[in-house]
Amino acid sequence: MSSPVLVRIVSGRAVVEGLLEIPPNPAGVVLFAHGSGSSRHSPRNNYVAKVLRNAGTGTLLMDLLTPTEDEDTAARFDIGLLTERLVDAVRWLRNSPSAGNLPLGLFGASTGAAAALESAAILGPDVGAVVSRGGRPDLASPRSLARVSAPTLLLVGAKDSEVVLMNRQAFALLQCEKKMILVPGATHLFEEPGTLEEVARLAAEWFTGHFSRPAEERPRPPHP
Question: Which end of the chain has fewer CB atoms < 10 Å from its terminal CB, N or C?
Answer without folding.
Answer: N
